Request: fold
Amino acid sequence: MLASHWIQRPDSSDTLALTDGSATLELSGAGAGAGDTMAEGVAPDRVEGTLLRFGPGVNADTVRRVGVVPPAAPARRRTWRRHALPAVVLLAVVALLLWHRSAPSLGVDNVTVSAASPSPGCDETADITGTVTTNGRPGELTYRWVRSDGTSSKVLREDLTRNQKQAKLHLLWTFQGEGRYEARAELRLLSPVRRTVSAELTYHCP
Reply:
């Protein structure tokens, strides 16, 4: 497509004549002699020294003559490069989350309960310890202590870190008064699995 300022029109002295029977083109001035005649339907390549392009598009010679700037590189490639790093980071985060979700969860291998002193004396406090052995995965234990005197604790929680394969859960039970009492302390593990273990104590105060 050519802008109008690309074409320099012939001077008024130039003559362009068309007849019905045949197409003739008479040019005077530079590029053509007077009386030159072209075949029907054929137009000249130059008019007053200006290159004309008939039909769609502009050829390479025209580009060089009129200084047409070739189109820039597609913006799609620059946009892809700009978004490549955030996309890689996002994929890495998603892969990490999926790996954590698919990894083995906290598991319990064994639960035991023991008393530091199975025969507390007068007005003594017994330290009862529950030991939970795990598979070393991080997670949370929930549990409850139940005593044979009819009292129980609220639901308690213990957080375990990675590679921590054992948790120590303590119950302090204070005895008072005279007499003898057979006591039992139960550790009821609620999650990640349900287990119930107990320890027996004998309180004696003459």
In short: Strands lie at 46-47, 50-51, 108-115, 125-134, 139-147, 156-160, 166-174, 179-191, 195-205. The first strand starts at residue 46 and ends at 47.
